[in-house]
Design brief:
The chain is built from 5 helices and 6 strands; from the N terminus they run βαβαβαβαβαβ. It is an alpha/beta fold. The radius of gyration is 14 Å and the shape is globular.
Length: 147
């Protein structure tokens, strides 16, 4: 059972750290959503085209094709151009958040993440209202909402 007004979400996690990806997928499953993982940007784009998820969590520091390039490519795909994209990064300075926003991410989440942070990010998606908090001291910042 989830606390998302009955919304069942399809989530894609693009993360090269397989253990972390599995942990995130388990978190989403516990929250009542369906989550799958891809372990690099190219496979992530292929998987996104296959499943058309509601939300994509994408690591920025991916090998071969970084998360910024993944976001750019995803935004070019007609069926995915409005997907809710969330950057996962070990960096969360204001410049990092602006960069994520400039590449098309809706939200920037600082690693490490915990269950309550992921739950709050999903609630923000469901509410379609941006966070009004500042970057300092926050685990995540919702940059914009694409409708």
């Amino acid at each position: 059972m989830n606390n998302f007004d009955g919304q069942y979400l399809s989530v894609l996690v693009i993360e090269d750290n397989r253990d972390f990806a599995a942990t995130l997928c388990m978190m989403f499953d516990v929250l009542g959503h369906q989550a799958v993982a891809a372990y690099n940007g190219i496979d992530g784009i292929v998987k996104a085209k296959e499943i058309c998820p509601n939300i994509i969590f994408c690591d920025i520091g991916l090998p071969e094709m970084n998360g910024y390039l993944v976001a750019e490519e995803v935004r070019k795909i007609e069926d995915l151009k409005d997907v809710y994209l969330i950057a996962l990064s070990g960096y969360a300075q204001p410049k990092d958040i602006v960069l994520s926003q400039n590449f098309g991410f809706n939200c920037h989440v600082a690693k490490p993440v915990d269950m309550s942070t992921m739950e709050q990010v999903l609630k923000e998606y469901c509410k379609k209202t941006p966070s009004v908090s500042s970057p300092s001291g926050m685990k995540f910042i919702c940059c914009s909402h694409r409708e």
